[in-house]
Amino acid sequence: MSVFEQTTLGNGIRVLTAEMPQVSSVACFLMLAAGSRYETPGSKGIAHFAEHMFFKGTERRPTARTISAEIDAIGGEFNAFTSKEITGYYVKCASDTRDVALDVLVDMLLHSSFDPDEIAKEKGVILEEMNVYLDTPARYVGSVYDRLLFGDQPLGWDILGTKETIEATTRDTFVTYLDAWYRPERIVVGVAGRIGNGLNDRLEELLGGVEPRATGKPAPVEPPTNGSRILLHTKPSEQAHLHLGVRGYELGHPDRYALQLLAVVLGGGMSSRLFTEVRERRGLAYYVHAANGTFTDAGTLYTAAGVDVARIDDAISTIVDQLRRVAAEPLPHDELEKARGYSKGRFVLRLESPQGLIQFGLRRELLENEIEEPDDVLRHLDEVTAEDVQRVAKDLLEDTPFYLAVVGPFDDPARFERLLAA
Questions:
Q1: Residue 257: what pLDDT?
Q2: Could you tell me which of 130, 136, 193, 133 has the C-alpha nearest to residue 162?
Q3: Same domain, yes or no: 127 and 248
Q4: Across residues 312-328, what is the average pLDDT?
Q5: Catalytic residue (choose from 5, 19, 51, 185)
Q6: Domain identity same for 195 and 246
Q7: Do 47 and 156 belong together in one domain?
Q8: N or C: which end of the chain has fewer CB within 10 A?
Q9: 15, 39, 351, 42: which is closest to 190 by C-alpha?
Q10: 3-state DSSP call for residue 330?
């Protein structure tokens, strides 16, 4: 049975819906295939900066307080997010206030004023957000790792931009970026929950005037072929934070389900290999997990850990050993079934809310113009064999270069090179 239904407005904007009659709320999303990957060297950070500015006022709702007061008046929750390939804006509210939510969202995206005085004030906010990020090494190490994997190209740049590009931003910077990428072919409206009647008619009224225009595509990823496999961000601290991984598969790769289970075997949950070996048996880390990061044309399988600076060498060696071992040895049946159950259970829990359900559907629809039904995901996970997982592990982890990013009190990459070769 299909959970999602897709329709298209007259100008090409796609609409993805998921009816959940058992709830009394609705989640309304405007999602765009336009994140920080779509920036130029001179506009780094503009995708995220624009997300901030959409909340600052429109012609009809001239201040941030006017916008927030209207959502508060319906008891709604609204927010936004920016990633490398996606920007999203959403309101969650009672189902009978759906049209208010949609009107506010569309007004923000189509009629934001980008007042120069508000831009100047928000620059300070963005710069402080950068400082918070830099002072949170468990988060910042992810940016260091992206820089290591992708170098000086959009996937390697920080989503927040740089101090120089933020300070140089003008109203024209926003207008140019939005005019280039905020077009119907890159917009998907997502609505889930108790949807109600007349949705597409209302969306046609609100969004039908957005002019279609071909936007092209961002430049393809070109992974650096030389340079160090280690990148350090030197910072005095009592704990070091690291990402250690390999290049992986893109979003739509046919082995993505086997890779998902491999990541769970390595570092999903408190009974995973890495948690058991690195934290429980050896006491080398406070947190340790593995994840599969994907983009439309690139990916990475990586581990993340916060470790004792005095024992970081032991932690890295232990992680490398676990990564090599999962490629070299057959996966026991009970471990595969545990990973399968973990993945399916977490996936089902994610779909319990209107917000979780529609976000799942939107990502594939937005980036690949393809709907993936929840039952298909569960079926594909059931089809993965132990041989599939080991084949993927061999492909990614056997005789392949490891990449290491570290935030901590270290300034000599050479000390870690022998550990990656173990």
A1: 98
A2: 130
A3: no
A4: 97
A5: 51
A6: no
A7: yes
A8: N
A9: 15
A10: coil
